[in-house]
DNA sequence: CGAGGCATTTAAGAAGCTCTTAAGAACTCC
DNA sequence: GGAGTTCTTAAGAGCTTCTTAAATGCCTCG
């Protein structure tokens, strides 16, 4: 949820009547995109960034549970709500343990669905949305960095996004592929990342982003 | 959830029978602390760090909804599940919009409650799997070694692969042939291994890898 | 509506790091 | 002491990353 707009929602539902209906019910609160099978859902889930997903349990081509596991295994942490006709407790347990964040069984109440999605997409700690990186602090909202000594550098959207992604998981090594999937079109060539890393190093400091040769880039505590 | 222990759970429930019962049901999966009214719940919620909270809707001294709002207003972002006798949709909506992350109405199923709490406390960026080797720890993902005293050494792909293979089966003696088949082209000459063993010994310590004369190399507890 | 400026993307040579080979020195075991 | 094994060092080939520059696209302001 990077802007003040409605949160984006990916709805994966094969029922030709129910899909558009749910979509319409949620449109006041969410910007809904409908996928009618698991394969399309997986593609959209992997290639675009969503604030939440609603996934039907029983889907053609690729089952809802398999879809969730596939998304989670690719590192997609987006909140997911499963919607299903199966209301038995062990079905709920299976769904939640597969990686879903919430579970509702049909027939469901539209108001409750919307409230649960609001809860899933809600973000806490709005005021201090800054990320500390070494001697610097990233203000993602204002797309700027402030050093502890007061100087301020403004970043472009891509620069800020790249830095924010890297800083979101310190110590983790992101491959160029990871970063392209998170920030660019998957068709872009990996070299784009190198260029932006270079821009950031020039703007901020040579040492904010560490290169891990053959793997990718990383932010973390300076060592050795 | 900072450790590998059970997640910590704050349960705020005034019912003298239900509180201990829920507590007992969840103990296998969570480390549960019980508070019997809203005031105690607020104090514990503010002064300690919890992986999740389960809060009863109707509480003496301080209502459950008021408690949640108070916690949220103080910047506490811990996942909260409301447990209540009120199952009407607008009650659920009120609870969720007050800042709760999930809502279950009594009578509830213990298995489902546990599954929902697992979903709430699940983290998607688990700390990287590390392998202990003597005083060192190998982070294969980042291809680096960190000593117990904090220093960090980065390894190349071959170095990390060799070390990981050796460490995967402590005490086992790997022949050069074993290692070449696992890490290099089978046509490579066995001397490659010697070179990398040397690199690792220089980077980390002379004693991480033990030579077994005439056989190969080994990692294991230092004996004699 | 067009010009200018800024952000983004592509491309290509330069620089740097890793891998691999090789050869002599040092060591081990008999 | 000698044969075989292991250690150490060095250097070139090959690959990855850095850096620069220019092309493209987008938005704004005149």
The residue fraction in helices of chain A comes out at 25-40%
Mean pLDDT metric of chain A: 86
Quaternary structure classification: homodimer
Overall radius of gyration of chain A? 20 Å
| SSE sequence of chain A, one letter per element | EHEHEHEHEHEEEEHEHHEE
Uncertain residue segments of chain A: 125-129
First-last Cα distance of chain A: 37 Å
Using a beta-carbon cutoff below 8 angstroms, give the protein chain pair with the largest interface and the number of residues from each chain. Answer: A-B, 37 and 38 residues
User: So what's the overall shape of chain A?
Assistant: elongated
In total, the number of strands of chain A is: 12
Main beta sheet strand tally, sense and closure of chain A: 5 strands, parallel
Question: SS-based structural class of chain A?
Answer: alpha/beta
- The number of helical segments of chain A is 8
Strand-residue proportion of chain A? 15-25%
Strand order of the largest sheet of chain A: 2-1-3-4-5
Quick description:
Two copies of one chain form a homodimer. Chain A is an alpha/beta fold and 224 residues long.
Structure description:
The structure is a homodimer of 224-residue chains. With 224 residues, the first copy, chain A, is α/β, with parallel strands linked by helices. The first copy, chain A, is built from 8 helices and 12 strands. A 5-stranded parallel beta sheet of chain A has the order 2-1-3-4-5, sandwiched between helices. A 4-stranded antiparallel beta sheet of chain A has the order 6-7-8-9, with helices on one face. In chain A, strands 10-12-11 form a 3-stranded antiparallel beta sheet. In chain A, helix 6 (157-168) packs across helix 8 (191-203). Chain A is elongated. In chain A, 34% of the residues are buried. Chain A binds a DNA duplex (30 and 30 nucleotides) through residues 156-159, 184, 188-189, 191-192, 194-198, 201-202, 211, 213-214.
